[in-house]
Structure formats: C-alpha cells, structure tokens
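Revision sheet: structure tokens.
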Amino acid sequence: MARLGLIPLDRMTAEQRRLNDTIAGKRVGSQTRGPYGILLHHPALCERVVAVADFLRDHATVARPLVEIVVLTIARHWTSQYAWFAHARHADRFGLDPDMVEAIRTNRRPVIGDETEEVVYRMTSEIMKEKALREETYERAFRLLGERALIEIVTTIGYYQLVATVLAAFEVDVPEGETRALPL
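Predicted:
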C-alpha cells in the first residue's frame, strides 16, 4: 500500500478533480493512479509534471518503442513494480522483442538486433548506472538519432527517473489483484 493513498474522487478539490479527469481521460479508468495519484496531493506540481509527460507522449519525434525501452530499463533498475506493470503489458503492441523484454525484466543484458534500440538501451543504462553518458555512446546516439531525438531521449530518461523516484519514495505498488513481475 502506498504511503499516500489515492484521494477519493468526492474529496478532491476542484483543481484536483480537474487534473484527475484530464489525466484519467488519457488513460483507462476514472481515478488517477500511479505517480499521478501521488502528485495529485500537490496539484500545481502535478500539472507541470503532466505537461512534460504530455509533451513527450504527444509531441516528441522519438518512436514509441524507443520510449518503452527507456521506461522498462528504468523500471527494472529501480525495481519499480508499478512502472513495469503499467508498461510491460504493452510491449508487444509497440513491437518490442519479447526476449529483450524478458532479459530486461530478469536483469540480464538483452541481445538487441536493432542498432537504434540498442543505443537507447545503452544510453539509459549508462546514465542510470554510471551517472554519465560515455563519449562513444553519445557519438553513436547522435549519429543514429540526431540532435532533437537525442535531447528527447535524454529528457525521457530524466522524466522516468522522476516517475521512478516518486513511485519508490511513496511505495506505490501494482494495483490490488495484480502480480509483481520483477524479481527483487
């Protein structure tokens, strides 16, 4: 159970309800969950975090499979059961290789045939583990992605680190009745 519970719809302020309805309208259900369920306790901050998420989802040029590689890699790094639950179930819809997803899930280095997918995985791993991006990886990513997409990927890594931090600090778990997929 999360350290901060979900705010019941009938106890939300008008601002919280407006944000909840906006966020939930882009997802399934009427109650905002996960990191936004926590952030709704601070509506002004929540609104700004949602604006970044909306930009990355709706206006970025990076292909969705690359974003999902970032998300799954970060979820595994943080052992973020909720983030894994929310994203891994859609991996096949985005064309991700099930063997790659399983390797990430079990904390093994995945074999990735696509050069762009591989460099995005490498970037995400290096930034999280080494807190830096090696020059060789940067140059390869710049060549494959270009300047704009490279900035978007790095920002996506930062955004999902924020999400993972919120989920970890407030102990947000998978929804009731769902199974944790990540080994501890």
